[in-house]
Design a protein that fits this description.
Blueprint lengths: L6 E2 L7 E7 L20 H7 L4 E3 L13 E7 L4 H12 L4 E5 L6 H18 L3 E4 L9 H10 L5 E3 L2 H4 L9 H7 L1 H4 L2 E6 L27 H19 L4 E7 L11 E3 L5 E3 L3 H21 L2
Parallel strand pairs: 2-3, 2-9, 3-4, 4-5, 5-6, 6-7, 7-8, 8-9
Antiparallel strand pairs: 1-9, 10-11
Helix pairs in contact: 2-3, 8-9
Amino acid sequence: MRRPFYLNDGSGGAPKLRVFLNLDNLVGLRQGSQWKETKKERILEQLAADGFEGVQLTQDGSLAPGALPHCGLGRINQPQEALSLAEKHATRGDLCLTVHVGWGIEDDEDVFRLVEAILAASEKARLPIFIETHRATITQDMWRTVQITKRFPEVLFNGDFSHYYCGQEMVYGGLEKKIEFLKPIFDRVGFMHGRIASPGQMQVPIDEGISRPAAAVGVVDYFADFRTLWKRAMKGFLDHAERGDVLIFAPELLDGTHYYARLFPGPDGKMTEESDRYAQALLYAKIARRLFQEASAAR
């Protein structure tokens, strides 16, 4: 078996967490957001001042010299697309790449050919590529994704667990047994997209210090469930990482255009997002760092 191709910073230090921000998190923020920077040339400076250690670029193009470290994202629908995408992002200087793969309606052998092509492209381009656990892709189903790990033990994932928690309603029928079933996926997480879902909504806000906002409906403590999911994925990384390996956690809280942020009428009757997604991203960063410390201390 080939060793999983984690991101490695060459430092020889203990495996570590780095908190990036997916730049789509800044798109369409509601009025009064904690994010105030409007000058494009100062965006990265402000993100660094706020504690983010890098960014995930969501469009083509490069950053200014000396800017924050960056990674990329893309989509692969056919095996022959994998190498060209990997080489493009390696040339841009991305540290790694997360990908949506296929549409979720492929036969098993088509799925395996896609994964095989991605692993080969990652090795040839010397670029870590993480297959995202996402709806409408080959990893939309927990069962099928675990089968991929059996065929390709060296595969690595970008864990966005909102797609399983909501899309497959993980709490229905018992969360604990599903968390145990996900162990082969947790053991192969090399990147994480930060988003919290409820059993019926893909993206919901949280408050610090309580389980979830006081206005939340339903009985499920989704905040506690996501702390468990994230910590299990971090433990999976730490159990398999070597010195110098890096796990990126990148909040990716999207606006209402993508049907993620929920909109409600404000006092003026205008529809507005229920939360400040940038303030939420800052909170996510704090939570992720705390959980990684706990996961590291427990080893």
